[in-house]
Each structure stands twice: as structure tokens, then as C-alpha cells.
């Protein structure tokens, strides 16, 4: 894995959703985009992991309908 | 070494239009001092920025951006060496675009969308792909 890919991986793993609904959904949109365009197995795995984390958070906050938009 | 870097980030909810003007002003002022050029596309909720300059300088700027509270969840999507600058005279061109354009639902053709996706995934740094970014301007 190149240095740039490592940086990308670290950035994805460092994603913190917080509790602002707008910022959570925007973060999930960005992760979904990365998931669609990257072919590296580790990046895809990190994106899926973060996607699950964000979806779970949305559900826990009561935004079940919003969470469905990000289900694969 | 001349390099390029593209990142995406969440525009913090407290980053209003006044803060945006401050960002754009400081980009133009500070980037000139370190010979960084590029473009900043932003919507109400996201940033996507293309930076070009010496590797050390753009990485230094990237580290600062990651600590800027106006950005959240900054993610590098592409980086690498660059033969020649694509925006040599732009300290930081900028444009506000609609959210759906950030999601690539633009008037680009399917082939152009693939090229743009390849660019931001780091698979390509071709001038053709950069031309697609220029379509936003």
C-alpha cells in the first residue's frame, strides 16, 4: 500500500460522527462515495466499518429513515 | 517534488458564509507565500479541494486543514507527484456548488463521470481528469 493510500486509510479510520444529524449524514455520504470509487480491500473494509458505525448511530438517535439511505 | 493532493471534508455546521469568506481570503494570501495553487469546490455541507505545490508545503497545509474546526472528517482521496501544474496562476480558485454536484450528478457524460471518479480515487492524475474539475468553473 502506498503512503497516500495509508493516509487515506488513516483518515477514514479517524472519522468521528459526533451528534449533529447534518454532519453525520454528510460524513456518511462521503464514505459512501469513497466506497464506490476505491478498489483497495483495506480501504473498502474501513469504509464499510465506518458506514456501519454511522448507520448504527443514526438508528440510536432515532433517525431510522435517514439510516436506510446508507444501507448497502 | 511537485505534487498534488485532493481531499474531501464535511463543512462544519458553524462554518457560515462569513467564515467561508475568511477561508477564501486566507487561501489567496497564504498560498501565494508557499507557492500552492489549486481549486476549492464547496457546498452547504462539503468541501472538495485540489492542491498542487511542493510536497512538503501541501502536506503542511493539509495537516493544518485537518486541525481547522471549520472542517470535519477530512479525508485524502488522492495524492502523488505532478509533472506540471494544472492551475499555475490560481492561488485558490473557488466556487460554491450544489450538493448534488458534489455527488457527481452533474451534466457530465457517463465517461466523464468515470474519469472524474478515477481522478479522485487516485487512479489517474491525467490532464483530462483535471479538465473535468475545470467544468465546475
Task: Supply the key terms.
heterodimer; A: 72 residues; mainly alpha; 4 helices; elongated; B: 137 residues; alpha+beta; 5-stranded mixed beta sheet; 29% strand; globular
Structure description:
- The complex is a heterodimer of chains A (72) and B (137).
- Chain A is 74% helix and 0% strand.
- Chain A has helices at residues 3-13, 21-37, 41-60, 64-68.
- Chain B has 137 residues and is an alpha+beta fold.
- Chain B has a five-stranded mixed beta sheet, sandwiched between helices.
- In chain B, helix 4 (110-121) packs across helix 5 (127-134).
- The mean pLDDT of chain B is 79.
- The A-B interface holds A 4-5, 7-8, 11-12, 14-16, 18, 20, 22-23, 26-27, 29-30, 33-34, 36-39 and B 7-13, 45-46, 72-80, 103-104, 117-118, 120-122.
If you average the pLDDT of chain A, what whole number results? 91
Question: Helices and strands of chain B: which structural class?
Answer: alpha+beta
Helical fraction of chain A: over 70%
Distance between the amino and carboxyl termini of chain B: 28 Å
Q: Rounded to an integer, what's the Rg of chain B over CA atoms?
A: 14 Å
| Overall strand count of chain B | 5
The beta-strand count of chain A equals 0
- Unreliably modeled segments of chain B: none
State Rg of chain A. 12 Å
Number of helices of chain A: 4
| Shape descriptor of chain A | elongated
Please describe the biggest sheet of chain A, giving its number of strands, its sense, and whether it closes into a barrel: none
Largest contact between protein chains? A-B, 23 and 25 residues
Helix and strand element order of chain A? HHHH
Give a quick account of the main beta sheet of chain B: strands, pairing sense, barrel closure.
5 strands, mixed
The share of residues in helices of chain B is 25-40%
Count of alpha/pi helices of chain B: 5
Oligomer: heterodimer
Tell me the fraction of residues in β-strands of chain A, as a range. under 5%
- Poorly predicted runs of chain A: none
Amino acid at each position: 500500500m502506498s503512503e497516500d493510500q495509508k493516509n487515506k486509510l488513516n483518515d477514514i479510520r479517524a472519522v468521528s460522527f459526533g451528534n449533529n444529524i447534518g454532519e453525520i449524514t454528510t460524513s456518511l455520504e462521503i464514505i459512501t462515495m469513497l466506497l464506490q470509487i476505491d478498489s483497495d480491500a483495506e480501504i473498502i473494509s474501513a469504509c464499510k466499518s465506518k458506514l456501519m458505525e454511522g448507520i448504527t448511530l443514526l438508528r440510536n438517535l432515532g433517525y431510522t429513515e435517514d439510516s436506510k439511505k446508507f444501507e448497502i | 517534488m511537485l505534487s498534488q493532493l485532493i481531499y474531501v471534508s464535511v463543512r462544519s455546521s458553524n462554518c457560515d458564509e462569513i467564515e467561508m469568506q475568511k477561508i477564501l481570503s486566507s487561501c489567496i494570501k497564504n498560498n501565494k507565500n508557499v507557492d500552492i495553487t489549486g481549486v476549492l469546490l464547496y457546498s452547504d455541507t462539503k468541501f472538495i479541494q485540489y492542491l498542487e505545490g511542493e510536497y512538503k508545503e501541501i502536506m503542511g497545509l493539509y495537516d493544518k486543514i485537518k486541525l481547522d474546526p471549520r472542517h470535519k472528517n477530512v479525508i485524502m482521496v488522492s495524492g502523488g507527484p505532478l509533472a506540471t501544474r494544472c492551475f499555475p496562476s490560481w492561488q485558490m480558485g473557488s466556487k460554491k456548488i450544489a450538493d448534488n454536484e458534489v455527488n457527481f450528478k452533474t451534466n457530465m457524460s457517463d465517461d466523464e463521470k468515470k474519469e472524474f471518479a478515477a481522478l479522485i480515487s487516485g487512479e489517474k492524475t491525467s490532464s483530462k481528469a483535471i479538465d473535468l474539475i475545470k467544468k465546475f468553473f
